[in-house]
Amino acid sequence: MRRRSTAARWGLAVSTALIAVFVLAPIYWMVATSFMTPAAVSASPPQLFPSPVSVENYLIAFVDHGFGRYILNSVVVSIAATVLVLVLGTLAGYALARLGMRGTFTIMVMLLVLSVFPLIALIAPLYLLMRSVGWLNSYQALIVPYTALNLPFGIWILRNYFLGVPQEVEENARLDGASAVRTLWSVVLPMALPGLFTAGIFAFTACWTEFLMALSFNSADQFRTIPVGIALFGNAHITPYGAIFAASAVAVVPIAILVLVFRRSVVSGLTSGAVKG
Amino acid sequence: MTGQDTAIRPRASRAGTRTPAPRRADALRRGLARLGWGFSAPGLLVIAAVTVFPVVFSLVLSFSNVNVLGSGFQLDGFTLGNYTTIFTASIWQYALAFTVGYTVITVAVELVLGTLIALVLERLEIFRGWMMAILLIPWSLITVISATLWDYIYDPTNGIADAIFQALGLGSPVILGTPASAIVAMMVADVWKTTPFVAIIVLAGLVMLPRDVYEAAEMDGCTGWQTFWKITLPLLRPTIALAVLFRVLQAFGVFDLPFVLTQGGPQNATTSLAILGYQAMFSDLKFGAGAAVATTTAALVVVGCLLFLRVFKAQVTETEQ
User: Fold this and answer.
1) Residues in B 76-115 with any Cβ partner in A closer than 8 A
2) Residues 6+ apart with CB under 8 A from A32
3) At the fourth CATH level, which superfamily is domain B88-320?
4) Annotated domain spans of chain A
5) What superfamily would CATH give domain A66-276?
6) Looking at CA atoms only, how far is residue B139 from chain A in angstroms?
7) ipTM exceeding the 0.90 mark
8) What is the dihedral of CA A15, A19, A21, A24, to 10 degrees?
9) Which of residues B12 and A252 earns the better pLDDT score?
């Protein structure tokens, strides 16, 4: 449609390449370093390519430091919280979209306010509370707060998608004698599937990356999640970068795949889902 | 109330025509609302338990003498001491100034860079999907990992930054060792991780802009520069406002990055409000003072948000009229 000069086209190509390098260079260096020998990791000046390629850092991270345990913890906590967000968020989002309760607007505004609340303000009371009931260093110490903190956004997203499902479809189901639960499950939910993807991927990413609560509530070695495990890796004097990057590379893979596969859901969640509010 | 009105009324009236007596429609509606409360209750209760209750409790803590005992804690009476302590402490004043300055500078830089990136990608005819995917990588990266990565980049002996400085003949500065360079280094790490997020939001806004306005501008002979300032930027205002709001909220609570990269140092130069509150609570076990830091931070965020939304709403209605 728009015709461009050769110079403009070259400018565009160069700028695009620069952006890609700006974003990818640090990631490349992380992965490259993870495959270097420990001696090469601490070489000065730094090496740009792993030669020889070595998996020793991976062995240090997973065999010596038991990093697999942190990954398992992150997986358990993130999946449990995401499932809870989707189940509770679907029920609440559908109710707030369709079932006509009084005070729907007030609830939606309250949810928005709660979702901007800085986490640091919740740490002290939650820590003291969990200490009193003996929840420190347990899976539920993270699953419950993660569910609660990601629910407001989940409810917002899902409600928006439910509002987009044509009313007639639901009414027909109801006239056919389907209960509200059945209507939601077999008629509305399949049509709002993209909403579930968006809400799910946001909840999962938030749980996977959260640090402050995981550090405050679950610092015991067997309950550390990936971010806590990496932050408290090694000791105060020597940072074992090679092993950390090996662990990081493994931690990055699942979330990167998830985000790349569902990138449309992510982008729509970053933009339309939030803007409509 | 708009959401409720549009969602409920048409259905209610239609249901009225289909059922024989209006009373039955009424009963149906009330039944559905009851069901709605049943559906929402579990989610709303979990949210309330983890947010509303702690917020109240945090206020109580901040006005109390808190004694941490072996397995629990004790509140000894009302006091304003926590607030007077933090307000008069130079470290709190510094942390507040640092957090505000850090937020303003990083968000401004990210906004400019993010908009530039979005403008480039919007012109792409191929590879746009791939570029979007690349931009999502830093967004989805665990902040602790990116902080460790930058720590390695800034390493005085093995770091690539040091190698670059030496190659440029700028010597070998200890980047994280002096306050000013540590602050800049931390900002660079933040800009790298979150500029792509801003770019994605702005790009999505750009793509949705109406084409015909641009064609009209082209026919009127506007230069690219004029088009950008007079058309693109004003139309993008809601999108940019959203990106700014998200980023300001996040930057104001900055914790993970300084915790890993600088531990708040050197000489407390990168102590943000969240770092200060965390240290008060978990290093010094001063839960009262920590809660006071946290409560004032939260109050600032909420007031800031309300002001922002008010100004933004006024602007939007102004442009719509």
Assistant:
1) none
2) A48, A49, A50
3) MetI-like (1.10.3720.10)
4) 1-64, 66-276
5) MetI-like (1.10.3720.10)
6) 9
7) no
8) -160
9) A252
